[in-house]
Amino acid sequence: QSVLTQPPSASGTPGQRVTISCSGSSSNIGSNYVYWYQQLPGTAPKLLIYRNNQRPSGVPDRFSGSKSGTSASLAISGLRSEDEADYYCAAWDDSLSGPVFGTGTKVTVL
Amino acid sequence: EVQLVESGGVVVQPGGSLRLSCAASGFTFDDYAMHWVRQAPGKGLEWVSLISWDGGSTYYADSVKGRFTISRDNSKNSLYLQMNSLRAEDTALYYCAKGEGDGYNLFDYWGQGTLVTVSS
Fold it and tell me: A108 and A16 in contact (C-beta within 8 Å)?
């Protein structure tokens, strides 16, 4: 089961900014890097943000990540129709000795 | 270009066994830890297992501990997951994923997955 808590859904119109939260604890987000993944329908997850706020090459700068204490956020600015997907946060958990995922957030572009 | 190609997923009866494979290319395989992650139909992502770059350390989710074994063959650029005592709740798409950077960082590249169905 998921250890990190995300809102089940988020939405916006094209061009808007959408923010997704990810809440954890001192054993995961509070002491380790946060990663964000985008999963388009029927495809494998893709890395969007690593080490809290780093973007891999090829990921648009419309996507940004931040972390504060035991929470993290993913922001999507200039929302586009192709951003419709499920988004997951993840972090290593020291207590479980393994990575944990968020519950996932489905982003809809209205 | 990093490529991860999983294989071995089939329909298997409860209590049965299965071995998944992941063929890696496009990077120096023995420089990185590797993971298995699964996704049950219509559900979220669940980490399954991790193996260090040299195979010397392994970690498992509680849900599979004692039933699954992760291994790797660096001479063949391949990752494996031996799955025993399979249960209906193990039904999922199983992804092979590469660890990012050094140590036990999380996943930067994923395969397309192989489907395991546990059903009588």
Answer: no
